[in-house]
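Progress report, Aim 2. The chain analyzed during this reporting quarter is listed below.
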Amino acid sequence: MDLSPNAYRHCELCPRRCGVDRTQGGLGVCGSADMPRMARAALHYWEEPPLSGEAGSGALFFSGCPLRCVFCQNHEISHEGVGRGTDARGLARMMLGLQAQGALNINLVTALHFAPHVVEAIDIAREGGLELPILCNPSGYELPPLVRALDGYVDIWLTDFKYASPGLSGRLSGARDYPQVAEAALRQMLSQIRAQGGRVTREDGSMLRGIVVRHLVLPGHVNDSCAVLDRVWELCGNEVDLSVMNQYTPNERCRRHGGELARGISDDEYESVLCHADDLGFENLWWQQGGTVDESFVPAFDGTGV
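Predicted structure tokens for the chain:
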């Protein structure tokens, strides 16, 4: 896949393949033109323990997203485009700044609709002394050729796997093809990490290379959550870490429209999914304690560090 700036001229960087000329100010389904907009670049302490540790993950939050999840907690940046414009050198500067602050990794949050800028920035930052592993945190809705093109750039994949049901993914994210796309993307990620030698950690347990698959449990959809875990186990087994999240928080849109998404998940729902993960045999399994259902877990998208 072409990851030069020409990729923006007829954009097919994501599964939407909308073909928009983003270089002329056109906005793709992701809501973005051809220059990255950044909402935050700061140490982030709320990732899984192997990723945040005590020092924090060096998180760069990009604006825009190819998915249109009705329940998105980061809607300010995913749907509304909040952020400040930058270029590849600006991104590289942010990466080096986070390394200087002691970050464990460089964490690219929903970044791949700007993949040409991302790879250029990593090259510039490495020339400038960047030594940290690159962590890519996508929605799971990624094209395998794009994942393949990032081989040699991404050391850690922190990828979502949101749905097993096309009906549910179509209704909640506007993407009926999400399950098949996410599975194909994960298969490609796994192939590349295997080829590099598999999961590697520092002595303190922080991750240098590997895959963490995240799944957010949604209220009223325990069966689909268990089906997601089945797919991940069949494909990856214990070659990936699994993170089962209970932090679903109804946003204003969900509260206004009511229905199943107007509430948080119950303890029983969450425990059911965790028990299923345990029954499948996941060894590197991460979960969240009570009290995470709170909008305070969404960072301030105020341009810090940009």
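Strands lie at 37-44, 57-62, 84-85, 106-109, 134-137, 156-160, 200-201, 207-216, 241-245, 285-287. The radius of gyration is 18 Å. These observations will guide the mutagenesis work planned for the next reporting period.
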